[in-house]
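Hi P.,

Sorry for the delay on this. The queue was packed all week, but I finally got your sequence through. Input first:
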Amino acid sequence: DVQLQASGGGLVQAGGSLRLSCAASGFDFDGYAIAWFRQGPGKERVRVSCTSPSDGRTYYADSVKGRFTVSRDNAKNTVFLQMNTLKHEDTAVYYCAAKGGIYIGNCPYDFSSWGQGTLVTVSS
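Then the structure:
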């Protein structure tokens, strides 16, 4: 079974930083696209980033480009989302998701395997 465990959320002031972690188990980490999504209060869930397993590229939403960075520790099957210069509008529940497949030059938006969310609150 694909299992994903997101952690690292919390309360931070605007301009601050947080690092989220997504620990993965039960599947071939190298063969799956790993994405971060977020859902703000009263908003739809949107994709924040997605890392393709095929070409190693990470795609970022325009709203987080230059502020958020994805990295991974393959030995620990863990993906990190480093969030810098946080804004109030980054407040959301953040989820990690996984989907197997080959993605070259793109990364999926539809995922079937999800971790539980971790809440990020940015005070203004």
